[in-house]
TrEMBL record:
Annotated TM spans: none
Organism encoding this protein: Faecousia intestinalis
Protein name, as recorded: Type II toxin-antitoxin system RelB/DinJ family antitoxin
A matching Pfam family: RelB
Entry superkingdom: Bacteria
PANTHER family to which the protein is assigned, alphabetical: ANTITOXIN DINJ-RELATED
Cited InterPro entries: Arc_rbn_hlx_hlx, RelB/DinJ
Keyword set, alphabetical order: Toxin-antitoxin system
Region (Disordered): 82-101
Length: 101
């Protein structure tokens, strides 16, 4: 049997429990999953998945406070006065491209 070394990690209890449930369904012990992850780091010479900030989603206007709504409307009015406008079609194309809307 190959020599082993211990790895200690602190994780949120809820995340650990959810991961254990998934791994149980897959029939993979937690220690094997951690070993697989570390082996992939070695093979990939880095984190074996993309690490990036979450995608920005448009904010629902109704979720803003009245003050925030007023500030957003004022920004929009300032853009109109400054001639920073876009056609409705270009806005729809951009929303579809960026957010799948």
């Amino acid at each position: 049997m190959a020599r082993t070394s211990n790895v200690f990690a602190r994780v949120e209890p809820e995340i650990k429990e959810q991961a254990e449930q998934v791994l149980d369904q897959l029939g993979i012990p937690m220690s094997n999953a951690v070993s697989m992850f570390l082996r992939q780091i070695v093979l990939q010479r880095g984190i074996p998945f993309e690490v990036k900030l979450p995608e920005r989603k448009p904010v629902a206007f109704g979720s803003l406070t009245k003050e925030q709504q007023d500030a957003e409307l004022e920004k929009g009015m300032a853009d109109i006065r400054a001639g920073r406008t876009h056609s409705a079609q270009s806005v729809m194309d951009e929303l579809k491209r960026d957010y799948g809307v």
